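WARN no homologs supplied; continuing
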Amino acid sequence: MGLIMLGAMWRMFKERQKTLLMAGALAVVLVGGFSLARTETFVGDKGLLDSMIPHHSRALLVCEESRLIDPEIISLCQQIIESQNQGDQPDEADPRALLVTGPATGPSRRSSGQSGPHWSWPLV
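OK structure emitted
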């Protein structure tokens, strides 16, 4: 937003060197913020679980309320609904239960040297 405002009001700033410095600082903040958001740098166990609850709820709602025609998408939605509504699923699979009980202890994939999904640049 700052870069847009700076570009729109470019003529208002008389000192070109300070204006360029401000534009550079805003660009660094933009790129840094985007990078941190894409790599989920500050997301831990609780943050992940907190974000998964509305994500799963939204997936169920969209599957139940959509007017679907494609048989593959209908099948996918049925699988999503069934997997979320199975009574024989262990409670540990429910993010709400994990928020109350806490995740199982032990080394994570990352700390044990195993790599999980990893995205590389550029993200398209």
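The radius of gyration is 22 Å.
OK
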